[in-house]
Specification:
A two-stranded antiparallel ribbon has the order 1-2. The longest helix is centred in the first third of the chain and has 12 residues. It has a domain of 41 residues. It has 1 helix and 2 strands; from the N terminus they run αββ.
């Protein structure tokens, strides 16, 4: 493994920081191939704090009829 193959550039660090800094909940996955970062994936989750009262705990609407 050469030193150039494992170099982390300021641009790469900035892309990773941007992915992390742009979300509140989630994960950032960095894919490495042959000692090089080839992909940065971001999965963001949205947390709902106050679900509507007409929904069951499972998230389904109650049928209120006609």
């Amino acid at each position: 493994m050469s030193a150039s193959a494992t170099r982390v550039t300021p641009e790469l660090l900035q892309q990773i920081a941007n992915a992390i800094g742009s979300m509140r909940y989630g994960c950032v996955q960095i894919t490495v191939h042959e000692a090089r970062v080839v992909q940065i994936e971001k999965v963001e989750r949205v947390r709902l704090t106050n679900p509507p009262s007409d929904r069951t705990p499972g998230g389904f609407r109650h049928n209120s009829g006609p």
